[in-house]
Amino acid sequence: MSFSAFEHKLLKVFKEDYSKINKIWVSCSFGEDSLSLLNALIKINPVLKLDLKVVHIHHGENNEDLDLNTYRDKALKETELFCKENGLNFKFFKSSKNLISEEECREFRFQSYKELEAPNIFTGHHKQDLVETLMMKMIRGVGLQGFYFGDKVFEGFKIFRPLLGFDKKEILAEINLQALKPLKDPTNFKDDYLRNWIRNSWLKTLEEKRAGSIKSLGESLVNIQSTINQSRVSDFQEASYIEDSSLPLSQWLSYSSSKKKEVIAMILSSKSPQSFTSGQVSEVIKQLDLLQKEHRFKVAGLLWEKSLEKIRFVEL
What we know:
Blueprint: H1 5-17, E1 23-27, H2 32-48, E2 51-58, H3 66-85, E3 89-94, H4 102-116, E4 120-122, H5 127-140, E5 152-154, E6 157-160, H6 168-177, H7 194-209, H8 213-234, H9 236-244, E7 246-248, H10 249-254, H11 257-271, H12 278-288, E8 295-299, E9 302-306, E10 310-315
Parallel strand pairs: 1-2, 1-4, 2-3, 4-6
Antiparallel strand pairs: 5-6, 7-10, 8-9, 9-10
Helix pairs in contact: 1-2, 2-6, 5-7, 5-8, 11-12
């Protein structure tokens, strides 16, 4: 059985990191990243023997932007056809309204994943996505515990990102090698969005100024993440509280100011369906430290409930 370099690398990732998972859904937009992931998984699946299914998210009709509307409809049709040709189970979700902002689209995707009742969602995010996301977080203000972009647990599902160790160039090379024909989202070329400006302008200028900068920056951020993750895993007590979505009030009252910031950042990093800022961390602490015996509030996509015994935090 012959595999490409990309497929060999992905096979190694799955054997080392996801060997205990056998039922997965690939979230495929029919863009370069998710299509390369899906196609490679089909090729290596005789070895992995995964129960492989595909979900596609349509972000709604847009009658004001015909190019975007055409793209969204075509992406759905092409994904469905690709799955049919490869004998894969396929399901899609379509928004009843037009979604524009990155936050709106992300919220609809996550809601769709919950309705799918699929515990393991695999996406095509790669090393450059990591760079873009962490740059956005730093621009908006974030602490070390929020400095995370990887496999993540949400209420009802988990998101896995097996391509984080892959460069965009590796993905494009695989696309060409396999003669795949992905579609390009027209909104990716509009610098109105901060992510697109970082990708199309800032990172491009940086790479022109110093060749190899994006790769080096990505590797540096991955190394920082690894160090942070080791710190997160080492704190078993806080990890168990986060897993249970509740924290004893007595434990909270024992924390120092710096420890409170660390714990709230850990909770938001693990539980929040959206990006968060240092300001939101401070707001959560402010609300929890109010003298009220019972208190409910919403911050960063989570509902917080403080009682006499514990603090609960669940996704909205």
